[in-house]
Each structure stands twice: as structure tokens, then as C-alpha cells.
Amino acid sequence: MLSPARLARRRAGLACLVAAPILLTAATAVDPALGDVEFAAAIAADPGAARLHTLLLHWSWVLFVPGLLALLAPIRRRGRVLATIAWPAAVLGLATFAGLTLSDYFGLAVLEVTDVATFERVEDQVGGYGWLAAGWQVPGLLGWALAPLLTPLAAARAGHTGWWYPAVALPGFVLYLLFAITEPPLSLAGPVLLTVANAVLAARLWARPPAGTAEDGPAPFRRTLGVVCLIGAPLALAAGMATLPGGAFHIAADFAADPAAAQASAFFLHLAWLLFVPAVVEVTGRLTGRGWRLAQVAGAVALLGLLHFNGLMIGDYAALAAEQVLDPARVDAVTARVEGDASLSLGVAVPGMLGALLGLVLVPVAAARAGLVRWPVPVLAGAGVVAFFALTVGRVPGLVAPLLLLAAYGLLARAVAAPAAKPEPVPLPATS
């Protein structure tokens, strides 16, 4: 029988698995650029629908991540090869793809301030950034293609779902890949089929634990990935702060002053918040005893916050391209449009920043409450988050927050990597 913590986590994942294709269906339905139309002109003609489409699409792929992880979590033996590929594809690749969708907000702001020809010049400028291609587009598209295709196969191979599930879900995803930008109803066929498949599966699995492995520990490759990310995330954050445009004690006023540093910093900051995702999943997944409710809340807050927050770094590339192509007055106008976009700020930026930074403190608090680490660990994490706000004024002071988080999450990594203590043998009663 599943523990209350794992049952709660499993049901939350199944709820996400259903909500994700529903949002994907809604996003497709409101997309103003479907059919035989010119993309830039179509979204410029209906910016409200374009913003709603981007928001729904981003949230859809964000929710697919915990949904797919819920199907992969119980896989230990059969299906483990497929799961070993699908897990990082979902938690790193698909999460990156969700961030890529946010670039439409910045493109729409450029269109509202300039014209189609200038928009295309900015898009061409962005397309030439090697850091964006290698750090975002390649892993994002790979994760987007592999995670939804391999996860149903892995779950069926492991015996946790019937083969009917990939037989329905995979055609749904393929239909979406092929016809996502065609006119309805063909564009809606794939998302609707995915919604039906996931809803039926969630209803069947809601109360039934996976056979035979309900209380097993995490698969070895997931534990290894989690430990590596616990250390790699703050190191990537340090690299992002160390490459900020500007000097040791000041940040440059504009990215165009040092475009190479701006691109590198945006990549490393994205990578840092992204690597924290498998890190917090691994830590909170181990907390099933004392304080398990706090662990579930901390994990959910951190996971959803980080999945939003890492994607916001895509805006640095758009800002750099705008500075390199547009005059200062139009750059200011584009920036004002983006910062004033309520759907972006309330739907992505605010929950992303608050969830990510609050979650990075709550996760160590939950670990200390459960006895996995001592209480100085969440104190170090809290000091790191405070330093991130207070000392981000240049490269040298900006390193304080990553170093504090490295100390906290390094201690978490040591605790996670330590072998589980074996219970003491219970002596048999004496017999006469």
C-alpha cells in the first residue's frame, strides 16, 4: 500500500496529467495563427488571443512535466531503459521547451511597437544566437519530442498501464505534432485524444498503486541525477552571476554592451533554475515520514515555481536582440510593453519567482523537519535567497547567493547520497 505522502504526490501528478492536455486543447483553440496565414500579421491582428494562447500553451507544457513524472516514478525493472531516457527528457528537455513558448510575449511586444518587417529583423537576430540554439532549442525540442512519446511506452512496458494507453496517447501526440497549426477541427484532434487517454488513465490509477513497487526507493539513475543537480544547480547559478554583463561591482545598463556575456549569463541562469527541478524532486521524494505534508507543499511550490522561473530567462535574448536592432526609444517601448503585460507577470513571472525562491527555502525546511538534515541547512538556504535579492549588484557580490545555496544543497546532496540505514535486527524471544 502506498504511504500517504506518495499517494498524495501520485494523485497530484495524475491531476496534472489530465489538466495539461485540457490546457493544450484550449491553447490550440484560441491560437490566432492557425491555418494558411502569415504568423506575424495574424498575432498582430489579435494580440489578446495571442497572449492567451501563449499563456495556456506554457502552462500546458509545464503541467505535463509532473504528469509524466508521475507515470515514470514507480518504474524500477521492466521499462527502465525507456524510463531512463524519458525522465531527463521530461524534467530537463520538456521544461526547457515550456520556457521557449514565452518568447512569443516578447515578439508580440515588438510587433505592437514596430512593424512586421522590423519584427522579422529582430527574429533573425535572435535566431543567430548560438547559446540560444544549443542551450534552449536543441534540448527543448528533443525533450518535447521524446518525453510524451517514451513515457506511455515505458509505463506500459513496466505493466503499470495497459498497452491501450500508448495506443491512444501516442497517436494523439503525433496528431498534435503534425497538425498543431492547421485549422480546426484537425488541429484539435490530437489534444482531445490526449485528454481522453489521460483522463481515463488517471481515473483507473487514482486509487490503485503500481503493482509490486509501491514503496521501493527511487531508481538509481534518478538518485544519481538528483544528487548531481543538487550540486550542479548552485554552480550554474554562480556561473550565471559571474558572466553578467558589467563589472565586478556593477551590472551593465544594457545587454548590447557585452552581447557574448549576456547570452552566456542567460543560459547559465536558465540552467541553474532548471537543474534545481530534479534536485527538489529527489529531496522531497524521500520525505515520507514526519512532516510529509510540508514536504508535499514544499515540493509542489518549488517545482511549479522553477518550471516557470527558468523559462523567463528567454527574455534576455529577446532584450539583447531588441537593443541590437531597434533604437533606444523603441527598446524602452518594447520593455514597457513586456513589463506591463498582466498575463505574463501574473500568470508566469510572479508565481515563477515567488514559487522558485520560496520553494528553495521550504524544501530544506521540510528536509530538516523530517530529520534528513540539520536545521542550519535551511538557514543557509534562506540566507542564500536573501542574498540573491540584496546583493545582485555585480559579479563579485552576486556570488554570495550561489555559494550559500551550494553549501545548503551540497549538504542535502550528501544526505540524499548516503545509503539508507538498515533497521536493527529484532531479537527473537527466548524459548524454553
How is this structure best summarized?
Keywords: Membrane, Transmembrane, Transmembrane helix. This protein is mainly α and 432 residues long.
What is the overall silhouette? flat
Q: From the alpha-carbon coordinates, what is the Rg to the nearest angstrom?
A: 23 Å
- Bin the strand percentage: under 5%
List unreliable stretches of 5+ residues.
Answer: none
> Mean of residue pLDDT?
90
| Whole-number total of structural domains | 2
Kindly report how far apart the N and C termini lie: 37 Å
Note the quaternary state here. Answer: single chain
SSE string: HHHHHHHHHHHHHHHHHH
Count up the helices: 18
* Total strands: 0
Biggest sheet details? none
Question: Helix/strand-derived class?
Answer: mainly alpha
What percent of residues adopt helix (DSSP H or I)?
Answer: over 70%
Keywords: Membrane, Transmembrane, Transmembrane helix
Transmembrane segments: 53-73, 85-108, 128-150, 162-182, 188-207, 227-252, 264-285, 297-322, 342-363, 375-393, 399-417
